Amino acid sequence: MKAALLVEVLFMYNKKYQIHEVDVPKYGENDLLVEIGAAGFCHTDCQVYEGFYQSQTPQIGSHEPAGTVVAVGSKAAKSFNEDQRATVWGGISKLGLPAGESVGVLGIGGLGGLGVQFCKALGYSTVAIDNRPEGRDLATEFPLKADLVIDYNDEMAGEKIVEWSGKGGLAGIVVCTDNVQAIEWSLKTLRPHGICVPLGVPGEGFHFGSFDLIGKEIIVKGSGVANRSEVEEMMKVVASHGVKSYVRTVPFEKTPDLPEMYMDNHLKGRLVMGF
Asked: Which keywords does UniProt give here (predicted)?
C-alpha cells in the first residue's frame, strides 16, 4: 500500500513527506485493521513534522484517520465488525457544564469550527473568538452558528465577552490554539470559578496571570483524547444535530505540500488527505 512518510536521518526534521510503498500492517487478537479513506492534518501533525516531539522516523503522517474496518482480531470481534466505520469530543465534555451556560471557543479552525457546533448542540450560549476573518466566518458557516463572534484583535474583546455573558464572564472556554498569549488571555473572559480547557500544546509551555488564575479561582483542565464512550456520544450528537466539518480536500499525491498549506494564515477549516 502507499503511505506518506516522514523520513529523516539523525532526527533532522522539516523535510517534505515522501510517498512510499509499505507493507500492510499485521494485526493481533486485540486489533483492528482499518482501510483509511481520509486523514486530517492538524497542528499536532505539524509539530511532529517540525520535530517538536522528536518522534521516531520513518513515520506515517496524520493521527486523524477515518476509514473502514477490513479485518478484526479474535478478541476485538466482541465489539467490532468488518465494514464498520472508524473515526476520530473530549475538551467540551471536560467543562461539565449544564445547558444554558455561556461558553467560549477560542481559535476557529478545523477543531474550533466543530467546537462551536458541539457547544450549540449541547445548548450552550456560544461565543466564537478568532483573529482571522476566515475563522470568524467559519463560526457562522453552518446552521449551528455561534451566538456572538468576536475579533481577538479587538482591544475591547474581553470586555465585550464579559458583558455579553453576564454573571461576571463565561462559565467555560475551550482554547483551540497553542498561542501562549491567547491561552493566557482566555482566563480574562471567565467568571470566578470559570473553567478553561486548553487543547493546544505550546512548545514553550503555558503562562497564566496569577491574578486571573488565583484571584478568580479559575480551573484549568487538560484534555488529551476522548475515550470510546465519549466518541460514541459525540457521534450521536453529530447525527442528530447535523454537525459538519469544513474541509479542504487534498489529493494524496499532494501530501508533501501539506505542512506549507497548513501554515497558510488564510486556511479555513481542516486539511484532509483523500485516498
From this structure: Metal-binding, Oxidoreductase, Zinc
Question: For the segment 84-100, what is each residue's pLDDT rounded down to a tens digit?
Answer: 665 747 889 999 999 99
Strands of the sheet with 247-251, listed across from one edge: 85-86, 64-72, 32-41, 270-274, 247-251
Residue 232 domain-assigned (yes or no): no
Residues 182 and 264 in one domain: no
Q: Are residues 118 and 41 in the same domain?
A: no
Asked, for residue 152, whether it belongs to a domain, the answer is: yes
Query: Pairing state of beta strands 247-251 and 219-220?
Result: unpaired
**247 and 272 in contact (C-beta within 8 Å)?**
yes
In whole angstroms, give the CA distance from residue 83 to residue 155: 52
> What is the pTM (predicted TM-score) of this model?
0.87
In angstroms, rounded to a whole number, what is the distance separating the alpha carbons of residues 17 and 224?
26
How much of the chain exceeds pLDDT 90, in percent?
67
Nearest to 112 by CA among 244, 269, 232, 242: 269
